[in-house]
Specification:
Blueprint lengths: L2 H8 L3 E2 L3 E5 L4 E7 L2 E7 L5 E7 H7 L8 H14 L38 H25 L1 H23 L2 H28 L2 E7 L9 E8 L1 E2 L5 E11 L2 E15 L11 E7 L6 H4 L5 E4 L5 H15 L9 E4 L7 H32 L8
Parallel strand pairs: 6-7, 11-13
Antiparallel strand pairs: 1-2, 2-3, 3-4, 4-5, 7-12, 8-10, 9-10, 10-11, 12-13
Helix pairs in contact: 4-5, 4-6, 4-9, 5-6, 6-9
Amino acid sequence: MSRKDREERQAYKRVGEDSWEWGDKYNRYSAFFNNGHIYWTWEGEKDLGGGSEQSFEEFLSKGPRDTDAPADVVEGIRAAVLKMNSSMASSPPARNSSGGFATSRGPAKVAVNASAQDPAAPLAALLGQGFLVFTVSAAIAVLLASALPTLAKFVSIILPVLFGFFAAFRWGGMALILAGFFAMAGGFGSQFALERYQELARGTSVTLASIADAPRHPEATRFVVSDIRAARPFIGRTQRTVVQMIGAGPSPRTFSVQVMPLVPVGWTRDRPVPAWLACTTTPGFDCLQRSERDLSRTIRARDYDLDYYREAIADSRRRHGMTSANDAPILEGSGDPFDTPEFYLAGVVVLPLITFALWAISVIGWRAWRKWKGAPAGSA
């Protein structure tokens, strides 16, 4: 920059306690303090511009990022930095031949040296902040799921992520943003467990001599039956398509819904079907074969699957000319201890704790790896 340009640039400066502005007839420049750093900005013609962040330590040891900043602006910044933190005092940056301040970094838009970054937050404090993200996200999601299940599913996607970003801006640390995404997974699991608990807890467990008695127990959600067989020749099928958000947009995914009658020994097709075994899988696979390995313990299907299972039952009845008993339950294979309401109630608390533990392990592992590599942990 020529002497004339430098003098013209210096003619438009304004100095404040923690912010400085200057410029020429084409450009505006500024520097200001924020959280232990200096932010250098440039605004030019036609929306041109740029910015760079510099720590106090780097400024004192290597000079300003903007090598053409007016000398009294640089002196003012240095005085303010030393006043804010006397422990950071060092010799003034050396001037170069053109009157500016020398720097080995060059102009703006150069990444800050990792060794000049603020030290990472103490591990215990970071884990405590992350635990708060998980706790608040899970608590709100579960409370909403108790009253407004549909709304709760949307909140479980948005709230933990937003809270993670808020915590990161409030306390610092990219790891808290990651905590928000882990908390989202924990919230989903907690809601699933709560819904299943509510479905099972409102019923009872019954032990029957024959599956033919199942329609007489509409209050039951869990069945232990001695006389029970699968009528595989009378399978019914349908498909369900679910739109999932994958990548940049919605993506449809198709599932195969399969059912077959559960009957006692000696049952014939002219008699009503007392119960149905149901399952969902990827098209082209037979999930009923896996489910019928142990029919002695079954559990009622989830409420949100019933409409699809009824379509498959209608397909079986239409193709095979059968009837279904009134109140014939639609069941899924099960086994201890997963068919107990208490198991799912425990999952409401345990699943968020598991995702928190996975996040904490990833944070501890990252810091250990950075320490082993001889690099600072940064803001993680």
